[in-house]
Amino acid sequence: MKNTKLELSVGIFVLLGIAAIIYLTIKLGTGSMVGGNTYLIEARFNNSGGLHSGSSVLLSGVTVGRVEDVRMDPSDYNAIVTLKLRSGLRLPTDSMASIKTTGLIGDKFVSLAPGADETYMTPGTRITMTESAVDLESLIGKMAFGSVDKEKNNHEKDGKTTP
After folding, report:
1. Which member of 41, 46, 59, 98 has the lowest number of beta carbons within 10 Å of its beta carbon?
2. Ordered mean pLDDT values, 10 residues apiece, the chain (163 residues)
3. Are 91 and 120 contacting, i.e. CB atoms less than 8 angstroms apart?
């Protein structure tokens, strides 16, 4: 009888431990444990390049938020990215947002570069200075098929030189 109670209590303890690990894995995976209080801002990009909800938002290499939503603006077909940032983060109004890649073909993330303005963004405002993701496939395709060299030669023939 004593063995059965001990085995039952150990079994319940193990199940609770597994449930806690699953809960923390899901919470950390979705980024919902990034800070307590947050606020939302938006950024408009010409090309979101595979950015998705849950991607990291970094400032100086430090995670300061998550991508909440990526949608298309039907009026001009640009990507509108909603960023969920920590409430303690005060971004100047002339800050810049860029879509970057971890490694050569890694995950996409949003990198923020603070500006020098003395006024700060409020929740719901939009970052106007953005840099879209680099389309790696088209860049490799241009290099593989020599269209980069052709464009360079055409510019040189016209007397235009590009850096």
Report:
1. 46
2. 84 93 78 67 88 89 90 90 89 90 81 90 88 74 68 54 48
3. yes
